[in-house]
Amino acid sequence: MVPTIDAVASEYRENFIVAKLDIDENRETNKKYGGNGIPAYIVFRNGKVIGSLLGAMPKQAFEQQILDILK
User: Fold this and answer.
1) What is the average per-residue pLDDT within 13-28?
2) 8, 7, 40: which is closest to 22 by C-alpha?
3) What does the H/E/C string look like for the chain?
4) For residues 37 and 28, is the Cβ–Cβ distance under 8 A?
5) Which of 10, 45, 52, 55 maximizes the CB count within 10 A of its CB?
6) Residue 62, Cβ neighbours under 10 Å: how many?
7) Would you identify the CATH topology of the domain 2-70?
8) Which residues pair with 42 in a beta bridge?
């Protein structure tokens, strides 16, 4: 998923920020946001969770699901 995440981050860098979190080094943050699987993606707007995604997926599906959440 890293190449997919990096591609989406690069393509949409003017629209949103993609950040990565190492859950082994940030267990409390993972716990706070309910990261129940790997990979887990949490979408924020203005500091609030507005959606989440779970599991590996092709770039097009990943991109579309993020865009749908951000609508």
Assistant:
1) 90
2) 40
3) CHHHHHHHHHHCCCCCCCCCCCCCCCHHHHHHCCCCCCCEEEEEECCEEEEEEECCCCHHHHHHHHHHHHC
4) no
5) 52
6) 20
7) Glutaredoxin (3.40.30)
8) 52
